[in-house]
Each structure stands twice: as C-alpha cells, then as structure tokens.
TrEMBL record:
InterPro entries: Integrase_H2C2. The keyword Transmembrane applies. It comes from the Eukaryota. Residues 47-91 form the Integrase zinc-binding domain. Pfam families: Integrase_H2C2 (PF17921). It comes from Portunus trituberculatus (Swimming crab). The chain crosses the membrane at residues 7-27. The keyword Membrane applies. Keywords: Membrane, Transmembrane, Transmembrane helix. This is Integrase zinc-binding domain-containing protein.
Length: 121
C-alpha cells in the first residue's frame, strides 16, 4: 500500500498541464521545492520568439553561462527543445566573443608595432 501511495504522490507531484488565457498557452506544474505552489510558464511556439527571448535574457544580462540562462528562461518560458536551444545559443555567442576579442587583440598588436619605433636624432 505504501508503494502505491508513494507512486500516486509522485505522479501527482509531477503533474503538468496546459491551459490557455486568450491567445497565450501556459505550461504548468508544481515547483520542485514547494509542492503547494504552481509554476506557470508561457509556451513559445515560434523560433523568432525563441531568438528574441534568448537575446533578452542572455545577451542583455551580461552573458551569463548556460546554467544561469537555462534557469532564467525556464522560470518564465517553455518549448520542447529549450535545453538544446540554450546550449547552442550560448556556445555560438561565446565563439563570437572569442573571435571578436582575438581580432581586437590583433588590432592592438598592429597599433603597438606602428607606435613603438625609435628614431635616431
């Protein structure tokens, strides 16, 4: 009997459902740390909206890493490929940052070479 009750509690605890308000659809479930409160997240259907969300929550907040971005996005939004999309987004942004830093470093090195010349008078 205890096993059945434990299983039912687990099923109830992990219960998720969808509901709509106007044109918006929400994905709901209980918060892991609090079985009393329900976590409600907006379901995102379009890739353009995903890019907008990732730009706002990752790029505008100081380029935090994957884990921090997943936490922030997951608090408010849901779509089926959320984890893979965030990892891809953060890795592409990090790669661009490395490339731009390398270009800036090379540019500064060229400036130094032009500036640092000694002439005999």
């Amino acid at each position: 009997m205890k096993k059945i009750l434990k299983h039912l509690f687990t099923v109830f605890y992990n219960l998720i459902f969808l509901f709509s308000v106007g044109e918006y659809v929400y994905y709901c479930g209980f918060k892991k740390d609090d079985s009393e409160s329900i976590k409600r997240r907006l379901v995102v259907e379009h890739k353009e909206k995903v890019k907008e969300i990732l730009t706002d929550l990752h790029d505008m907040d100081g380029h935090k890493g994957t884990r921090c971005t997943q936490y922030k996005v997951g608090e408010k939004y849901y779509w089926p490929t959320i984890t893979a999309d965030i990892k891809d987004w953060v890795s592409r942004i990090s790669e661009r940052e490395r490339e731009s830093t390398l270009c800036l470093f090379k540019h500064k090195e060229k400036e130094k070479k032009l500036i640092v010349r000694r002439f005999m008078i």
